Amino acid sequence: MTSLTAAGTERGQKRLVLGLLKPVLSLSLVFASFLMLHRLAEKDAFGLKAGGPRAWCGSDCFTFKHSVSTEGPTEQGAPRSRNGTAPSWDAQVLNCSEDASVSSQDWFRRLDSRFHQFVLRKHCRYFPLRINHPEKCTRGHVHLLIVVKSVIEQHDRREAVRQTWGREYETESGSVRTVFLLGTASTGKDSRNLQRLLEYEDRLYGDILQWDFMDTFFNLTLKEVNFLKWFNIYCPRTRFIFKGDDDVFVNTHNLLELIRFRTEERRDERLFVGDIISKAAPIRNRQSKYYIPKELYDGPYPPYAGGGGFLMSGALARNLFRASEAVQLYPIDDVFLGMCLQRLGTAPESHAGFRTFGVTRRRLSPMNSEPCFYKQLIVVHKLSPHELLRMWNVTHGDSLVCAFVLGSGH
Ligand SMILES: *[C@@H]1O[C@H](CO)[C@@H](O)[C@H](O)[C@H]1NC(C)=O
Ligand SMILES: *[C@@H]1O[C@H](CO)[C@@H](O)[C@H](O)[C@H]1NC(C)=O
Ligand SMILES: *[C@@H]1O[C@H](CO)[C@@H](O)[C@H](O)[C@H]1NC(C)=O
Ligand SMILES: *[C@@H]1O[C@H](CO)[C@@H](O)[C@H](O)[C@H]1NC(C)=O
């Protein structure tokens, strides 16, 4: 997502003015030193780690390891409720009717008409699932669930994500699984054929979640709340979620390293990390895609994560679901999540590795073609499917030598 607030725009411009080489170097340094610090701390605390702690003192060595594994693969199959039936998707709002009580009110008549649809149907929150995968998180232990917002016709982006950072695989801590979040084709599209293609795609990959609401800009928040509810039902033991757009580059290795550091420091339970925008205010420029009229929202926004991608713990996501039920839907999904976090009393944490704003505005920016830049970071937006494949290939090839070698050396 591009910047949606006055603060975001200003930030983006500042970054461009700063020149291009300097930020590459300083960012790399920031992130390199961040990882170095953690690695040093890790060495200090567990000097014998290399020898394999479990080999000489068993699983009692590190109590935190214990606490981690309590959520491990304790049972197979779908989670059961007390009476023995598996909880399942129960939303059946097949026909979301307009809330007529709103339309007679004064403020509604003054409201910019492009918000009328949104306000009239704001009470419809959960929609039926057209394509579901109840088994996604229950086959083995899912360590990280990668959740990608996509739309029905962006098949090529999903394909590129599957071949790169969205690839499902097994790690020492559990498996990495991927789902794409979709609504239905918006009006004016060849919806029947698109739907058939999507169902075919899902038979091949088994990674599509589709809800029965129209995939429009103002409906993006529906994706947020329906996913949180879905996660709460079907992924009771999943440890972490990475949520991102289908046009970003994600360095999964760095992402998993960050998770590992936080888990070892026992700072993983309330984890919410991203590119955090603070002290932003609604955009009042009517020309902007992100324009919000005063009638809809007044006052500053709570801190929120730029939509390109963020990481959160499964435990936090479950609390976020409960908090979200008390928050009215808001047309900008990133801000809506910020409101839920605020209600929960959780401050999102900024991390230099998440670059969801500003860096790649200029097509010819060296950052767009500098593989070492991508090797240092966690999330970079915004790439075409071709650029994503190419950058993944280069950053994962043997021939790339960077000044700062990060990670655990593999
Ligand atoms: C089990 O409980 C759920 C809700 O907790 C309920 O919807 C369902 O009908 C119950 N099933 C039986 C067989 O009682
Ligand atoms: C949806 O509900 C409205 C009012 O409740 C009704 O007028 C309309 O016919 C319904 N549409 C469909 C497709 O069922
Ligand atoms: C959101 O989706 C619903 C269900 O498809 C639709 O009735 C509504 O018009 C959409 N809202 C917006 C603001 O596009
Ligand atoms: C990735 O790299 C390999 C070997 O260098 C090459 O054969 C392949 O075509 C590349 N793929 C893409 C998508 O660039």
Automatic annotation (TrEMBL):
Enzyme kind, highest EC tier: transferase
Protein task: N-acetyl glucosamine (GlcNAc) transferase that catalyzes the transfer of GlcNAc via a beta1->3 linkage from UDP-GlcNAc to the non-reducing terminal galactose (Gal) in the linearly growing chain of N- and O-linked keratan sulfate proteoglycans. Cooperates with B4GALT4 galactosyltransferase and CHST6 and CHST1 sulfotransferases to construct and elongate mono- and disulfated disaccharide units [->3Galbeta1->4(6-sulfoGlcNAcbeta)1->] and [->3(6-sulfoGalbeta)1->4(6-sulfoGlcNAcbeta)1->] within keratan sulfate polymer.
Protein family: Belongs to the glycosyltransferase 31 family.
Keyword Transmembrane attached: yes
Gene Ontology terms: cellular component: Golgi membrane
The protein's name in its UniProt record: Hexosyltransferase
Organism: Periophthalmus magnuspinnatus
EC number: 2.4.1.-
GO biological process: keratan sulfate proteoglycan biosynthetic process; poly-N-acetyllactosamine biosynthetic process; protein O-linked glycosylation
Locations listed in the record: Golgi apparatus membrane
InterPro entries: Glyco_trans_31 (IPR002659)
Keywords assigned: Glycoprotein, Glycosyltransferase, Golgi apparatus, Membrane, Signal-anchor, Transferase, Transmembrane, Transmembrane helix
Topological type in the membrane: Single-pass type II membrane protein
GO molecular function: hexosyltransferase activity; UDP-glycosyltransferase activity
Positions of transmembrane segments: 20-37
Protein's UniProt keywords contain Transferase: yes
Pathway(s) it belongs to: Protein modification; protein glycosylation
Main location: Golgi
